[in-house]
Amino acid sequence: MIKEQLIKLKTGEDSFIALWKITSSESLIDKNILLAHGTFSNRKVLNGIAEYLAKNKFTCWIFEWRNHGHSSPTSENFNFEAIAKKEVLLVFDYLFEECQIEQIDCVTHSGGGICLTMALINEPQYKSKIKSISMFGCQAFGAATSTYNYVKLWAAKFASKLIGFIPATKIGGEENESYYYMKQWLDWNIKRNFIGEEGFDYRDKMPSIKIPILSICGAGDHFIAPPEGCKSFLAAYQNDNNKLVYCSKETGYSENYNHSRLLHSRNAAKEIYPQVLEWINGKEHVG
User: How many domains are contained in the chain?
Assistant: First the structure.
């Protein structure tokens, strides 16, 4: 039986981010995994893999960004960098300081992996606390794989600026994202760079992260995190211990996975979750 506990981490007098503790009767207190969702989503996209990992002896922690899921709504503008510098670090402090957890593994979807990367670059003292990372559909500067995609990025930027946000219904998501938030990701992919505030070059600092990373991409993900983009993002870490998994019918999978089904589907539970478990248990990499 799966147990869920909602922990509210205060970000202000009347605001908080939601941190969910997911356990089963098999979960151990010394085996912990932090899970992070991406844009247009919340904890729902991670429920399946969290339950799977909980049944395989792990205590799972899912946090939801501000304005997402059960976290406090906000009218303030924020971007990827704000999530990386505030939410991720708030969760780290809770797990490592208050809960006294020595080390964790991380599982991320899409923008969750981008934010984790930025957080570790800004606060390198946390790198030793993370044993492995598994990223589903994650890239920051490789969406423009064709002229069509390049034009689509500009169109998305123009349309979202015009109406102020991108509707989640347009991409089958759960949460709308503001123009201010998505502009950063759109600019990275249009300009093919990974530049943060005050010209900080995150791509240049990615090799400082030596944690073994499993990057999982889908053949049917044609725009948000196309395989070529995931490959270039993973290559930027310059770590031979990292591994790219390409999920397609051609490589023996049941389907050409798209951006959401790569993580949130029955086929993924059968074919992909076990690979993540092996990675976390260290059977496919040198820690």
Answer: 1
Beta strand residue intervals within the chain, DSSP E: 3-10, 16-23, 32-36, 59-63, 104-109, 130-136, 165-166, 177-178, 213-218, 243-247
Please classify residue 251 by burial: count the beta carbons closer than 10 Å to its beta carbon, then call 0-12 exposed, 13-18 middle and 19+ buried. Answer: exposed
Question: What residues make up the domain containing 37?
Answer: 3-140+203-280
User: Domain containing 17 — which CATH number?
Assistant: 3.40.50.1820
What is the chain's pLDDT, residue by residue, as a tens digit (287 residues)?
Answer: 899 999 999 987 788 999 999 999 999 999 999 999 998 888 999 999 999 999 999 999 999 988 877 888 887 888 999 999 999 999 999 999 999 999 999 999 999 999 999 999 999 999 999 999 999 999 999 999 999 999 999 999 998 898 887 777 767 778 778 888 899 999 999 999 999 988 999 999 999 999 999 999 999 999 999 999 999 999 999 999 999 999 999 999 999 999 999 999 999 999 999 999 999 998 665 44
Q: How far apart are the first and last CA of the chain?
A: 31
| Residue 171 located in a structural domain | no
35 neighbors 60 (Cβ within 8 angstroms): yes
126 in a domain, yes or no?
Answer: yes
SS3 content of the chain, % helix, strand, coil (to 5): 40, 20, 40
What amino acid is encoded at 134 in this protein? S
